[in-house]
Design a protein that fits this description.
Keywords: ATP-binding, Glutamine amidotransferase, GMP biosynthesis, Ligase, Nucleotide-binding, Purine biosynthesis
Radius of gyration: 21 Å
Shape: globular
Helix content: 40-55%
Bound molecules: xanthosine-5'-monophosphate
Distance between the termini: 46 Å
GO molecular function: ATP binding; GMP synthase activity
Function: Catalyzes the synthesis of GMP from XMP.
Strand order of the largest sheet: 3-2-1-4-5
CATH superfamily of the largest domain: HUPs
Number of helices: 11
EC number: 6.3.5.2
Protein name: GMP synthase [glutamine-hydrolyzing]
Length: 320
């Protein structure tokens, strides 16, 4: 019988044969696919692997630390680039959703160039680029590697500093549930392996209007509370994606004896099988109530919570 353990072992063997004593680079996003690919490569080639994690300042609460902790058991080179100032600088003054997405994409390219220099200095020449492309990505994007890379990264094309022989895609034959199984087989935590999707532009597409550090911090806190309450209610496996969105609308409220004028925050939860269409999740009122009271009490800057009850279509899952 074929098991995921067999798949793991044969993949490790194949990677070792291919890579030899070469060096491999992988961009770690913190998502399931790149994390499982990184763990597999770490098992196979250890410190010949360099993973780069770009913290663009639009990550969820504690995300960077969690990624770093998850890989601390392997002897790999993990480079964490703190690019918050660069990304927030690039976003300054922008309010249009497409302008913001473009600014994030352009900053990713500049950050990758900077990363190239850093890797050149610290690691030397890279022989292989690895990525966590999974089977559904391959089908979606056609067979052309360049197309896969283009459509599944938030930047256009390959970073030109990488003088690599080949792209290694060890998850290319696997469906999502198999990738998760492999992740467990490699000893990654349930928290990482069962993680909901998180978009490349991060909180940048969950803050309407201008993006500032203050707004990112407000959203991070509120989102963490919502996710915690969903998990406490045991709904984290039923609801496929759930998160908070910080609107650019401030509304009047009352706290104690004084009037407040703070942001309205939206909660979003969807059930879906393919993320192409989605239904809004029927989260029990008690769970919404708990999350709402906690957020307005614990997060300064938010005084009103709404729940998004639109499906996709006509709405999208994200707000921008
Ligand atoms: P929408 O909002 O289009 O989202 O209904 C569908 C799914 O795609 C994710 N998403 C993205 N993922 N880069 C990503 O890596 C992006 O720019 C991006 N935009 C949306 C979204 O989170 C949802 O799972």
């Amino acid at each position: 019988d074929w098991t995921m353990g067999d798949y793991k072992n044969s993949s490790i063997k194949a990677i070792r044969e291919k890579v030899g004593d070469g060096k491999v680079l992988l961009a770690l996003s913190g998502g399931v696919d790149s994390s499982v690919a990184a763990a597999l490569l770490a098992e196979a080639v250890g410190n010949q692997l360099t993973c780069v994690f770009v913290d663009h300042g639009l990550m969820r609460k504690n995300e960077g630390d969690e990624v770093e902790a998850a890989f601390s058991k392997w002897d790999i080179n993990l480079i964490r680039m703190n690019e918050e100032d660069a990304f927030l600088g690039a976003l300054k003054g922008l309010t249009d959703p497409e302008d913001k997405r473009k600014a994030i994409g352009a900053q990713f390219i500049r950050t990758f160039e900077k990363m190239g220099k850093q890797i050149g200095e610290q690691i030397g020449k890279i022989d292989y680029l690895a990525q966590g492309t999974i089977y559904p990505d391959v089908i979606e994007s056609g067979k052309d590697d360049a197309a896969v890379i283009k459509s599944h990264h938030n930047v256009g094309g390959l970073p030109d500093f990488v003088d690599f022989k080949e792209i290694i895609e060890p998850l290319r034959m696997l469906f999502k549930d198999e990738v998760r199984q492999l992740g467990f087989e490699l000893g990654l935590s349930e928290q990482l392996v069962m993680r909901q999707p998180f978009p490349g532009p991060g909180l940048g597409i969950r803050i309407t209007g201008e993006i500032t550090k203050e707004k990112c911090d407000i959203l991070r806190e509120a989102d963490a509370i919502f996710r915690e309450e969903i998990a406490n209610a045991g709904l984290d496996k039923e609801i496929n994606q759930y998160f908070a969105v910080l609107t650019n609308t401030r509304t009047v409220g009352v706290m104690g004896d004084s009037r407040t004028y703070d942001y309205a925050l939206a909660l979003r939860g969807v059930t879906t099988s393919d993320f192409m269409t989605a239904d809004w999740a029927r989260i029990p009122y008690e769970v919404l109530d708990k999350a709402s009271s906690r957020i307005v009490n614990e997060v300064v800057g938010v005084n009103r919570i709404v729940y998004d009850i639109t499906s996709k279509p006509p709405a999208t899952i994200e707000w921008e």
